[in-house]
Hints:
With 330 residues, this protein is of the alpha/beta class. It has nine helices and twelve strands. Among the domains are: 76 residues, no CATH class; 83 residues, no CATH class. The strands form two sheets. It has an eight-stranded mixed sheet, sandwiched between helices. The structure holds adenosine-5'-diphosphate (ADP), iron/sulfur cluster and magnesium ion.
Amino acid sequence: MEEKLLEIKDLCVEYKTDEETVYAVNNLSLSINKGETLGLVGETGAGKTTTALSIMKLLPQKIGFIKKGTIYMNGQDIILKSEEEMRKIRGKDISMIFQDPMTSLNPVFTVGEQVAEVIKLHSEGKSKEEIEKRVDELFLMVGLPAERKTEYPHQFSGGMKQRIVIAMALACEPQLLLADEPTTALDVTIQAQVLKMMKDLKDKLNTAMILITHDLGVVAQTCDKVAIMYAGEIIEHGTAEDIFEGNFHHPYTVGLFGSIPDLTTKSKRLHPIEGLMPDPSDLPHGCRFNPRCPKCMDICTKAEPREYISDGHAVKCHLFSDDSSEKKEG
Length: 330
Ligand SMILES: Nc1ncnc2c1ncn2[C@@H]1O[C@H](COP(=O)(O)OP(=O)(O)O)[C@@H](O)[C@H]1O
Ligand code: SF4
Ligand SMILES: [Mg+2]
């Protein structure tokens, strides 16, 4: 039996600035089982980072607010936890890898000290020697020589810094890893290495992972399940097979797939979806994708579509009826 680890229901998150209210996440629901990898995909501004920060309860103070919803981790609602309780959960149960490794690294401490600090925070009673031994193990695990633990972040390349951040994130073997575009800041060859390493570590430790990316190629290589996000909503989700095959897809997903360069032919032409993401402080009525949708119908500007589900594969679009294997129009 698959065991549920994280379950988010109807999550709404807003940012309030002096000028406007940004509706960053709108009624988002998703769940992830132990050991599973979920790819969270969407353009910049879709609300992916906001979703991850909500799970960590690290939204910017006095600006970011969870307005509605529940985030159950192992059956307990994170939203109700105090900051003190969250400090125990972060790093131990849930860890996050940020896009820019320097978000997590402090330039004035050695990288070894920083990895040790995470271990200390969550393992009372460990001796200094035990902690150092664990630091060495972690360096080895992420493919860095342990002797380099006495160096400072600036002495490492971008890819190496991200490895150190991953070592910190995995130091206490969290049950859930939130990886927010962990390889975007790295060059392509290093990207592949870091991703492979993350996958191997995940398989070894049975960590569940939410992998945030706008790269569908990365998702195809790493994820069991995929959720596609647009304007703060999940507009399609299912297994990787559901998303990468068949013809039951949200028009936005179809557009995204059109924008992957086809490596099997000579053509490297990208097909970006025309238009821009809607202004998140003034979202369109009905379906949020309607201003950009090539299949837009009358109803799409009036009524919000509901989610149509077929064998666990869900699409939020008026094109699909309850018998979702059939498209209403071609
Ligand atoms: N601190 C903030 N203050 C105001 N708006 C924000 C803040 N952080 C993010 N946003 C807005 O929230 C929306 C979702 O952003 P984000 O979650 O970062 O998307 P993604 O990670 O998918 O690119 C965007 O419109 C973004 O401009
Ligand atoms: S609901 Fe309408 S506008 Fe939205 S994606 Fe489907 S067809 Fe396009
Ligand atoms: Mg982001």
